[in-house]
Amino acid sequence: MLAKHHILTSSDILTNFNLQTDFSLLKVPRVIPEGNIETATEADLEGIIKLANRLNSFRAKNAPEVFLPSKEVEQVEITSLNNTFQDPNSRILIKKINGEIAAFATVKTYEQSGSYCFKKEKRCDLTGIYVDEKYQRQGIGTELIVAARNYGKSNECTFLGLSVYHFDGNNLDFFKKLGFKPEMTLMALKVSQKSEETTSNSESIDNPVIRIKREEDLKNEMEGIVKLRVYLSSVSAEYEPIHHKEANDREAVINSIKKGTHDPSTLYIIKINDEVAASAQMTVYHYDTSVTHLLKDKTTCFITDVAVDKKYQRQGLATKIIKAVFDDASHTEHGIVELSVLEKNKKARACYDRIGFKPLYTYLGMEI
Fold it and tell me: Residue 206 sits in which domain range?
């Protein structure tokens, strides 16, 4: 990583890392059009904004319930891009043809801090990419991805990731062909659209959902929740061993549980025969992503760490806890409940599908 931020020129790019070559990790060979990938400067802002507006219009057209119209966010988009120029961990990569900006991509490097279930690693995310329609199908998208990959690699990242919205099926297929693998899907459901599954009172288990909002109330429940978190981490590590790990740091697990009792989070548990049979956490989450300014809903109720003891599975406990989250969300200004599920966790995905959650985007990645 550069110690001090500065705008790189085209020659700087080729000196510091090779943006134009090294397709060894990409599956699809491409004929690369002439011209270099450059790092954008403020002088390129007008051309980038034109493409960004087209990208935002495409998003708003295909998911109007999620994205604001592009005209409403153009000025905020300019501010966002200017902030990207000033971020030492971010770059805007551009492709020029005949002096015109034909495509751009935004990239960001960051440390994924190790937690009780995630491995510590440095990542590079491709947070946005768009190719002008008249220059599509010429290999420019692939060229930008190679540039992003090499930028991440030069900054000691080991992973290149990106998110693709589910209404953009063509791009999803494109990235898969290049070697990106789906890792997880973010799913969402409006509180006003909750399904009969979440409103039904016919659960086979009558035990109530207990809400824990104070750390001192964890005393009698901590061991049971720790047990479920460790079990959950082992499942995640089995499905996705590259980035997940089985929890072996008891203190880290306990700290993660304690945080779940601090505002704006709430822990939910169901007890059967005096033991914790199921648990989950809900956090009121303020979006902090590259597209925050484009979204209609700036905050959401995000569900994490949904775990059910093996011997109590298939009895509706996960659904019951999620119903409790919806009940709580209905009394707030937060209109959306979200959660993420690993691509290989088919059982959990089937459960969320039944409840009515719809996929919003898939996060894909490749080792670099």
Answer: 187-359
Instruction: Specify if 368 maps to a domain.
Output: no
- DSSP class of 131: E
Neighbours of 195 (CB within 10 A): 14
Decide which of 145, 179, 213 is a domain's last residue.
179
pLDDT digits (tens, 9 = 90+) for 145-203: 999 999 999 999 999 999 998 888 788 899 999 999 999 999 999 887 665 555 554 45
Q: Domain containing 227 — which CATH number?
A: 3.40.630.30
Q: Contact, 117 vs 247, CB < 8 A? A: yes
Q: Note whether 116 and 219 are same-domain residues.
A: no
Residue 131 pLDDT exceeds 50: yes
In angstroms, the CA 95 to CA 20 distance is: 11
- In the DSSP assignment, the letter for residue 136 is T
| Alpha-carbon distance values, 352 to 181, 219, 313, 319 (Å) | 21, 31, 14, 8
Residues 324 and 344 in one domain: yes
**In b/e form, how buried is each residue of 159-172, taking b as 16+ CB within 10 angstroms?**
bbbbbbbbbbeeeb
Q: d(Cα 260, Cα 264) in Å, to the nearest integer?
A: 8
DSSP code per residue over 240-288: -TTTB-----HHHHHHHHHHTTSTTEEEEEEEETTEEEEEEEEEEEE--
Q: Which of 115, 147, 179 is the last residue of a domain?
A: 179
Residue 31 has a CB neighbour count (10 Å cut-off) of 7
In whole angstroms, how far apart are CA 151 and each of 291, 350, 360?
21, 37, 28
337 vs 64: which has the higher pLDDT: 337
